[in-house]
Every structure is written in structure tokens, then in C-alpha cells.
Amino acid sequence: MAAAAASSNPFPFPTRRPPDDTLFYAVYPLPLPTGLPPTALLASLQSLHLSLLSHLAPFLSSHLFHRDPFTLSLPADPASPCALCASPPVPHLHGALRFGDSLPDEWLAVSLLFALTRAFPNTVARAWDSDGDFLLIEAAFALPRWLDPDTAPNRVFIFRGELHILPPPLFPETPSLEAALHAVYDDSVDTRASDAVQAAIQRRIAGMPERAGENLHTARVTVPAPVAKVLKEEPCLVARAVEGFYDRDIDTMKHAARMSKFLKGPGGEGVEMVRTSVRMTRAMYAQLMQQSFQAPRGYPMPRREEGPDKWVEAELGMKIACGFEMMYQERRHEVEEGKGSTWEVYRKSLEATGCFEGLLPGSKEYKRVMEDAMQYYKTSSLFSRTREILSAPVHRIDEILAMPYSAEDFQGINLPPSDDDSWLCNGEDELNAELHERQKEIEEYEALKKHTKGQKQNVSSSSTSQPSEFNLGEITESMQDFVRKMSSFEGAEVPSNREEMESVDLDVNQFFKAMESVLGKASQEKAGNDTETDRKSSSSDMDFDDSDYENDSAEEAGDKDMDDSFMESYSDALNQELSNTSIKETFSRAPHHTNDEGPSNAADNDGEMAPVDVDLNLVESFLNSYSSQHGLPGPASNLLGLMGVKVPPPDGKKL
What we know:
655 residues; 7 strands
């Protein structure tokens, strides 16, 4: 393990696949061993590393992962920023696990992190994948509303077997990783996530890692003797064989057509076919069974008449054998192996981190440091043996096939029966159960939201004496606040806190007087400028220019009488024109008071239109729109809600 950690890229992913199917994780010792010299820091991390791997060894030694096994490693340089974790130089151990199509492997790794932090109380872990903090996705219906992908960085940790989330009051802005770890470790600060969040995560990892064996499948297969020998010595290599078969392309299939490694002996002679038992993950078994693949020419296959069981065993074994051939030949040609898996590479990494700085080669202190490093390398390599084999399968396969073996070694063995694979076609019940769980979560979330909303409504209703005391004038006041508010380049916004703002009152009479003065002055300007042919005149009686109004403000006071006369004439003419239409019936009007003093051509007209009550029409329009929504979301309720206006539920009648 330490050797693998020493390479520049301790987790060599195949270049053909992006790490979208990869889980990343890190474990931090607490309190952080900062300020230590390089040798002391390295020794501290090495001690923690061996302790954690020793704790997991009983499970990891017998479990089969779909792609990569769970393991931990030291960063190449603990005093430098970590490229894998994209984090500052904080002392830690880290790992990356490719789970491929086997999502249970991801949650199994999460359960191991929970188990580690429970067994080692002075450690904190965090886990993430291409979706970010995916633990929050699992507990989405129980999360506080402030928590989202933008606020989550450096806030979600696994500590002492529970999930911890750093709240905004503790860190209003995104905290640094070191500060966040100190806060989690501080018992005086409550960072534990709510019980609902804990329950959502525990439901997903319940029974793990003990229940992880349910994700495995055992099957009998008929394979060439070399393949059987490799599987007998290193059962974990079936993961690389299935990966080679599943990710095959035209180039790698050329190797399967020849089968020069696993279907021929050292001298080019043929090999015998033997029966053996293979254990794999359910995802591996499904990948093999659900793909049609014709056996290469010359590959011995039984006749279908010999029975379906024999055919299935031979076909499954043929796919595994072809996967081994494609994987072996492809990796051998790419010369991938040996990188970062030797003692020399590990020793050079120690020199790069300054472990031998100031020490003379051959001195007593130099030999002591070298012996400690060698002992750690040997010990950690025992725990990382599976990882080393999977990262360098060609070398190990060559070693195995160099051993003496024969087909007789696999005869007369009582093989366990194949597991029932009805789960391949009967996943409907499992899917329905999962959908039922999700639907139950949604219903609980909606019920809680409705209950919370009801409590807020009760508090709101208790703060007012009677529901009938709803103030309709609040609508006009809020709308006037909205209209008068200065907008920015981002658009119009409602007032953020209406209670803290001064009330804005619109004097309708003053508003109309201002409009009348502007309109009247515009008419006078038009009459006075008829002789000026070089100036544009407005084609509308309501068109005016602000700059003209400002320049001629001195004349406005003297022409006020003429303006009033024009506006009365203009208003009478407009009312006369509109009186013959139905538009007058669409507005609510204020009581009309006849003015006998001013000249008016329509003063005696019984059909003269009374002034429009702007506030009353605004309120009626809002309430009619709100009532037509029938309690559903709509523009009226949304706008009123944004302005802070609480409207009683509609009674079903049009207002």
C-alpha cells in the first residue's frame, strides 16, 4: 500500500472511463498533528494507517468488490496539497473506489467509513463522488433549507459513527477544512445532524458490512484449465476479467479471436476444459449474462442438445475466459504494470518528502529510518495485496501459470451449486419496494411541510383579532411600494422587509393634478410652436418632453388658468367619446359631484362618466384574480406573497 501511495498517481484509473463511477474518501486524525517535523508526521500517519487496515482486514480479506477493493493510503507528500482530495495540506489518509455499475459497493464503503469512525473516535471521515456530497442527496427530504450544493463544501463529515453538518451560525461563509475539522472535534459545539437525517443515512447502510454478502453470486462455469488455475489462486481477478469483457472494443476483440494465452499451452498445444465455481458480484453476473457473445473460432463449446445447464455453464465460462484474454493482452501491450508498486519507488518518495534530510547514508540514524520504512512497507503490503494484484494482474497471472498444474487438479471436487439467478428477471418487487420507500419519504415530507404551514397560519391568525380585520388598503399600499421602488440592472424586486420601510402613500388627487399640468402644458407648447417647422410635434395628445417641461417651468404658473380650461374641455370630449362604449362598465367609480363653476360642454350630460377610483379597481382586480385561482398557485398570490400581503382563503365567490 505504501508503495502504491508513493507514485504520482496512486489510483490509476483506465483512461477510457471517466471517474464518474468513483467514490472518493478521506480520513483525518484528530486533533490534527500539525507542526510536526516530516518524519514525525509520517510516523503518525503510518501508525494510524496500519491500525485502520488491521481493523478492516477480517472483512476485506474475504469480500469481493465489483471493481476496486476498499483501501486507504498515505498521500505522496503529507505536507503538500492533495491532488486526489483537492484539499490543502491537512494530514490525512485517502482512497478512491471505482464501483462501476455496482452501487451497493459505494454504500458498503460508506458503511466502512462509519464503522471506522465509530471504532476510532479520534478520526473524522468524509466521502464524495461526482455528484458531490451524495450523502445529502440520500437525506434530501430531511435537510435544512439553507443546505444546498453551494453551501455544503467543508460542512459534511462522518464523526463517531454519525453524520455531522456544520450550521451557518457557526460558519456564515464556507469554512476552511482545518477550521471545520476543529469544530467537529469540539464537544462544546453541536454539529450533529438531525435525527431525520441520521435515519435516512442509516436506512441505506443498515446491516452493512455484514449484509454485503447478499450482493454476491456464485455460479458454476466451464473454463480452460489456465483460467481455472488463475481463479483458484486469485479469485479477485474475476473483476478484471469481467471488466475486460464488458468494456471490450474492436481492438481488444482481436485478442479474443486468437486466445493465444488461455486456450493454448506453453508449447502451443491445446488445453483441457474443466468445471469450477466462481464467485462474483451480482452486477458482474448480470453484465456477463445479459450480453450476447459468440464464441471465438476454435473455442470448444458443447452442443445445445447436451442440456441447458451445461450450455449455460460453458457460455458463462467462455465469456470469462475471453475477458481474461482481452484484459491480459491489452495490459501487456500498454505496459501499465510496475508503476508505483516497487520498494525503490517508495524509497524515492521518502527521500522527496525529506525523511532522510540531513542523514548520511550508512549512519545509525539513517539505518533506523530505513528499517522503519521497510517494516511499514512490508506490513502495509500485506493489507494491500488485493489492490496490488488488481493494479498489476499481468505479472501475477504469469506467476500463477508458471506453477505446475493440470486438469486433474480440478476433477473430483464437490462444487457448490449455482445460486438462483431469478433476481435477474424478478426485480420488479425490489423496484416497487424501493419506489414505495421513496413515496413514503415524499408523503412524510409533505405532511411535515403541511403541519409546519398550519402552525404558521395559526400563529398568524392568533396575532390578529378577527379574520375580517384584513386590511384591503394593504394591497394598494404594497403595490405602490413596489412601483415606487428603484430597480437595478437585475430587474424589479419587491421590498425585502416591508415592516422596516417607511410607508409610501399615493395621493391620487395630487397625482392627477400633476398629470393634468403636464398634459395642459404640452398642449400650450404645441400651440406656441406651430410656426416652428424645424421642430417635431407629437401625434398624441399625451406626448410630452421632460426637458421642455423643466425649461418652461417658469411659464407654467402664469398659464395655469388656460391649462385648467383645456383639461376640462379635453376631459369632457373624452368622456363623451367613451360614453358610447361599454368600457365605462368595467371600472368602479367614485361618487360624482357636479361642478357648476367651470365651463364644460358636457356639464348637463346625464351620461357624463364619474372619476375612476384607482385604488378600488386595483384591489378588486387583485382579489378577483386571487379568487379565480381556487387556492392554487398563480400570479396574484405569488405577487401578493412577495409583497408580504396575507390574503384570507377565498370563499369561492367572485369578489
